[in-house]
């Protein structure tokens, strides 16, 4: 494993092992990532991962139903 690989893995995946893709919006209702974000996560640099995590918060706030 290289230092570059270690740096890319420094940000933990938001996956909660509850994978259900919302057909209307195209993201997983478990982790709120798109299929592209899920498949490319291991290639992302930390900055990219943090950007996705910020987008996840927006998606969650926009698409979650109040309880």
What would you say this structure looks like, in words?
There is one protein chain. With 67 residues, the chain is an all-alpha fold. Helices cover 45% and strands 0% of the residues. It contains 3 helices and no strands. It is globular, with a radius of gyration of 13 Å. The model has no long low-confidence stretch (mean pLDDT 88).
Binned, the helix content reads 40-55%
Provide the gyration radius in Å.
13 Å
Mean pLDDT: 88
What's the total number of strands? 0
Tell me about the biggest sheet?
A: none
**Quick one: overall form?**
globular
How would you spell out the order of helices and strands? HHH
Please state the structural category: mainly alpha
Count of runs of 4 or more consecutive helical residues: 3
Give the N-to-C terminal Cα separation.
44 Å
- The parts where pLDDT drops under 50 for at least 5 residues are none
Strand portion, in percent? under 5%
Please tag this protein with its features.
67 residues, mainly alpha, 3 helices, 45% helix, globular
List the topology elements.
Elements: H1 3-8, H2 35-40, H3 46-63
Task: Give a brief rundown of this model.
The chain is mostly helical. The chain has 3 helices and no strands.
